[in-house]
Amino acid sequence: MSTAIDNSPSPATVAPSRTYSRWTSLAVLCAGTLMTILDGNIVTVAMPAIQSDLGFSGPGLAWVVNAYLIAFGGLLLLVGRMGDLVGRKRMFTSGLAVFTAASVLCGTATGQGVLIAARALQGVGGAMASAVVLGMLVALFPEPREQARAIAVFSAVGAAGGALGTFLGGALTQALNWHWIFLINLPIGAVAWLAAVRVLAPERGGGLGRGADYPGAALVTGALMLTVYDIVGAGNRSLTATLLMAALALALFTAFTVRQARATRPLLRLRLFRSRLLTGANAVQVLMIGTMYGFQFIGALYLQRVLGYGELATGTAFLPAPIAIGVLMLGLSARTVARFGGYRVLLAGLVLIAAGMALLSRAPVDGSYPVDVLPPLLLLSAGFAAAMPALTGLAMSGAREEDAGLASGLFNTTQVVGGSLGLAALTTLAASRTDTVLGRGADLIPATAEGYRLAFRVATGIAVAALVLAAAVLRPGTDSPVTPR
C-alpha cells in the first residue's frame, strides 16, 4: 500500500480552558453521549404502544429501530474522520443540535413515514455526536492513570444509560405516552448543547483538504449502511437475498480498501489496522456487544412474554444493572485497570459475562425474578463494568493522536455492527426455535421460553468466543508499532 507522507502538525485537539476543568469538559461529553445512548434503548419497551397508535405492521414497526441503526452505524466512520478534519468540538455540537431537532420531529410525528424519517435523522445526529467523543476524551486526558479514570466514567455513563433507557421507556410510556420518550430530549439536548459550546475549548481541525476523500467516503458509508441494513432485516427476507446483499457490501468494502491504499490523502489510513490492539479490540467488541444487546432485548421479552411483566415492571427489573455498572465502573474500574492491567481486567469481565449468560440459559417458564433473573443480571453487569473500560483503553491506545477521531468512530462502528448482528442472529434463532416447538403441539408460553433458552445458550457461546479471542490477540507486548507511511 502507498499513502502520502504527512509531516504537517497534527490538528489541535480539545484542551480545557482556564475557566473550565477537564473533568467539567468530560461531564459535558458524557451528558451528550447519554442522550444518544438513552434513545437507542428507550424505544424498545414503547414499541407496542407505537405500533398500536400509528398502525404499523410487524415488519414496518422494525423500521422504527432499523432507520436509526442504519444511519447511525453507516455514518460513524465517516463523521469520525470528518471530526479530525473540521474540528471535533464542531462535529460534536452539530450532532447534538441535529439529534435534538430530530427528537422533536419524532415526538410530534403522527404518521409512520414521518417517524421513520425522523428516526433516520436522529441516527445522523447521534453518529455526529458519538463518533468523536473518545478522541476528545483521549486528548483531554493523555496521562494513562487519569485516562483510565476518565474512560471508566465515560463507560459507566454509556453502560448505565443503556439499561436506564429501558426503565425510562416503560415509565414514560405508561405514565404519559410514547411521544414523551422523544420529547424529553428537547430540554436535555438544549442544555447539553449550550454547555458544550461554553465549556469545550475551541479547536482547529486539520482542514478538509487534508483527507476529504469523497469517493472513499461514499464507498465506505454505502458499505456500512448496506451491512447494517442486511443484518437488521435478515429475518424478513430470503437467505438468497441476504447473501446477495452481503456480497454487495463486501464488494463495496473491497473497493474502498483498494481506494484507500492508492489515494494520496485517504479517508482511512490503512496503517491503523497494523495495530493489533486496535484491530483485536474492535473484533472482541463485536462479539461482546452482540452478547449484551441480545441479553437486553431478549431478556426484556422473557420478562414480558413468559413471566408476564408489564412495561414499567420490565423497566424496573433492569434498574439494578445501571446501578451496579455505575458503582463498579466509578469505584473500582480505573483502579483495577491501573493495578492489574487492561488485559487481565478484560478477561475477568468476559468470564463473568459468559457465566451470566450461562445462568440465563435456564430461563424457566415458571421462573422468578430474584432466583432466575437478578443473579445473572448482576453477573453480566459486573462483567461489563470490568470489560468495557478495559477494552476501550486497549483500543484507543493503538491509535495515534491525529487518528483519535477516526479510531473513535471505528470503535463506535463495530459496537453498532456487533449489536445489530447479535440482536438479529439471536432473535432469529429464538423465533425459529419457538415456531418449531409450536409445530410440535406445545403451548405458546413454553415454546417461547424454549426459543429464548436457545438464544441465551448461543449468546453464551459468543461470550466464550470473545474471551478466547481476547486472550489470544490482546496479550501485553503483542502490538505492532503504528508508524506513518
From TrEMBL:
<feature type="transmembrane region" description="Helical">
    <location>
        <begin position="91"/>
        <end position="110"/>
    </location>
</feature>
<feature type="transmembrane region" description="Helical">
    <location>
        <begin position="212"/>
        <end position="232"/>
    </location>
</feature>
<feature type="transmembrane region" description="Helical">
    <location>
        <begin position="377"/>
        <end position="396"/>
    </location>
</feature>
<keyword id="KW-1133">Transmembrane helix</keyword>
<dbReference type="Pfam" id="PF07690">
    <property type="entry name" value="MFS_1"/>
</dbReference>
<feature type="transmembrane region" description="Helical">
    <location>
        <begin position="454"/>
        <end position="474"/>
    </location>
</feature>
<keyword id="KW-0046">Antibiotic resistance</keyword>
<dbReference type="GO" id="GO:0005886">
    <property type="term" value="C:plasma membrane"/>
</dbReference>
<keyword id="KW-0813">Transport</keyword>
<feature type="domain" description="Major facilitator superfamily (MFS) profile">
    <location>
        <begin position="25"/>
        <end position="478"/>
    </location>
</feature>
<feature type="transmembrane region" description="Helical">
    <location>
        <begin position="315"/>
        <end position="333"/>
    </location>
</feature>
<dbReference type="GO" id="GO:0046677">
    <property type="term" value="P:response to antibiotic"/>
</dbReference>
<dbReference type="InterPro" id="IPR011701">
    <property type="entry name" value="MFS"/>
</dbReference>
<keyword id="KW-0472">Membrane</keyword>
<feature type="transmembrane region" description="Helical">
    <location>
        <begin position="26"/>
        <end position="49"/>
    </location>
</feature>
<feature type="transmembrane region" description="Helical">
    <location>
        <begin position="116"/>
        <end position="139"/>
    </location>
</feature>
<dbReference type="InterPro" id="IPR020846">
    <property type="entry name" value="MFS_dom"/>
</dbReference>
<feature type="transmembrane region" description="Helical">
    <location>
        <begin position="178"/>
        <end position="200"/>
    </location>
</feature>
<feature type="transmembrane region" description="Helical">
    <location>
        <begin position="279"/>
        <end position="303"/>
    </location>
</feature>
<feature type="transmembrane region" description="Helical">
    <location>
        <begin position="61"/>
        <end position="79"/>
    </location>
</feature>
<keyword id="KW-1003">Cell membrane</keyword>
<dbReference type="GO" id="GO:0022857">
    <property type="term" value="F:transmembrane transporter activity"/>
</dbReference>
<feature type="transmembrane region" description="Helical">
    <location>
        <begin position="345"/>
        <end position="365"/>
    </location>
</feature>
<protein>
    <submittedName>
        <fullName>MFS transporter</fullName>
    </submittedName>
</protein>
<feature type="transmembrane region" description="Helical">
    <location>
        <begin position="151"/>
        <end position="172"/>
    </location>
</feature>
<dbReference type="InterPro" id="IPR036259">
    <property type="entry name" value="MFS_trans_sf"/>
</dbReference>
<feature type="transmembrane region" description="Helical">
    <location>
        <begin position="238"/>
        <end position="258"/>
    </location>
</feature>
<keyword id="KW-0812">Transmembrane</keyword>
